[in-house]
Design brief:
Keywords: Hydrolase
Oligomer: single chain
Strand order of the largest sheet: 1-2
GO molecular function, one term: triacylglycerol lipase activity
Number of strands: 2
Distance between the termini: 19 Å
Protein name: Fungal lipase-type domain-containing protein
Largest sheet: 2 strands, parallel
Radius of gyration: 14 Å
Order of helices and strands: HHEHHE
Length: about 100
Amino acid sequence: MAKGKIHSGFIKALGLQKNNGFPKELRQPTDDRRDFTYYTRRRKLRQVLHENREARFILTGHRLGGALAILFAALLMLHEEAWLLEKLEAVYTFGQPRIMKK
């Protein structure tokens, strides 16, 4: 997968650490209670889809939400989340800003 320079604001909005890359699993110190949105949402999505085996999901968002929807799907691909990607029906965005730096 080709990589580029993602604007740091989007990285922060997903709860990722700019200098830590995008590890498949996050190792959080026990004294650090910050919410890492990508990992929290992925964990919840796995849980819901395991409980409802026939369910599929759609990622969607407007403006910032659209940018995050695209990045969420891209991170699923980067992390080779084949089972989740099979359940992904579509990604729809509206008014999404450019997520890559020039």
